[in-house]
Specification:
By secondary structure, this protein is α/β, with parallel strands linked by helices. It has 2 domains: 25-123 and 223-260, 3-Layer(aba) Sandwich (D-Maltodextrin-Binding Protein, domain 2), CATH 3.40.190; 125-221, 3-Layer(aba) Sandwich (D-Maltodextrin-Binding Protein, domain 2). 41% of the residues lie in helices and 25% in strands. It is built from 11 helices and 13 strands. The chain has helices spanning 2-20, 30-37, 64-76, 90-95, 110-115, 155-161, 164-169, 179-187, 198-208, 233-248, 251-260; strands at residues 39-44, 47-48, 52-54, 61-62, 79-84, 101-107, 116-118, 123-132, 147-151, 172-176, 193-197, 212-214, 220-229. The strands form 2 sheets. Strands 1, 5, 6, 7, 8, 9, 10, 11, 12 and 13 form a 10-stranded mixed beta sheet that branches. A 3-stranded antiparallel beta sheet has the order 2-3-4. Strand 2 (47-48) and strand 3 (52-54) form a beta hairpin. The model is unreliable at 1-21 (pLDDT under 50).
Length: 269
């Protein structure tokens, strides 16, 4: 009976996935397929400022990555859609065709490169420890026996898991759906520190004026890339070519100035 039920469920899952696929047909160039669909769908965690997040006043999804992607879509001759996704299931969202790419402070790793087709890095980043200013925590070793907050499925989690001595020293780890929730918990003392992207941490501290600081000892250094389906390298290359064009004509610098106050892009550098 379990085998029969399992087979039925598997079949249902297959047809459900098949029915929502919007990937290129066999032999079809993925760039042509995108233009035929007419809409470039970007998958993101919509609570990741300043790269992609909801504006409190308009509820519109805005951010650095959003502005880059909108202009890239325009130059490719298609419309643009920002699609919030479950970050834990981001690769499945991509493979089932619900989105065309993952573009939202998406860290390039060797493991991810095996499954996805990545652009080169467009921004550099570090995984850092954010603490309350009065916590007394100044180094990674000061976290011994304390409670750490991490966004589930994030590169922060990868960075912690990759630092065995640090991970072993922490007393307890709490996983959150997004960094905003993690920082709110830090604010009320639910955790002693949050590991997160320096790009996001520095922006959030500047915007909220909360008494947080970033310690000077990063857990890892990394680069942000745009992830496409493994068999859609042509689409990846087309988007990257447009971004290089945007960097050359000053568009990327202008968008970076808008969100960061300076040009921190590494495209064409």
């Amino acid at each position: 009976m379990k085998k029969i039920i399992g087979g039925i469920l598997l079949s249902c899952a297959f047809f459900a996935l098949a029915s929502c696929r919007k990937t290129a047909k066999t032999g079809e160039n993925p760039v042509d397929a995108l233009k035929n669909r007419g809409t470039f769908v970007l998958g993101l965690d919509a609570s990741f400022p300043p790269l992609g997040f909801r504006d409190n006043d308009t509820n519109e999804i805005v951010g650095y990555d959003i502005d880059l992607a909108k202009e890239a879509a325009k130059r490719l001759g298609v419309s643009f859609k920002a699609q919030p996704i479950d970050w834990d299931a981001k690769e499945m969202e991509l493979e089932t065709g619900k989105i065309d790419c993952i573009w939202n402070g998406f860290t390039i790793t060797d493991e991810r490169k095996e499954a996805l087709s990545f652009t080169e890095a467009y921004l550099n980043n570090e995984q850092v420890l954010v603490v309350r200013a009065d916590s007394g925590i100044k180094t990674l070793s000061d976290m011994k026996g304390k409670t750490l907050g991490i966004q589930s499925g994030s590169s922060a989690q990868i960075a912690v898991d990759g630092n065995a001595s640090f991970a072993a020293s922490v007393g307890n780890t709490i996983y959150f759906k997004d960094n905003i929730t993690a920082l709110n918990d830090l604010d009320i003392g639910g955790v002693d520190a949050v590991v997160m992207d320096s790009v996001v941490a520095n922006y959030s501290i500047a915007q909220t004026k909360k008494p947080f600081v970033v310690i000077d000892e990063p857990l890892s250094n990394e680069g942000y890339g745009i992830g496409f389906r493994k068999n859609e390298g042509e689409l990846r290359d087309a988007v990257w070519a447009v971004l290089k064009e945007m960097a050359a004509d000053g568009t990327v610098a202008a968008i970076s100035e808008k969100w960061f106050g300076k040009n921190i892009s590494v495209i064409n550098k």
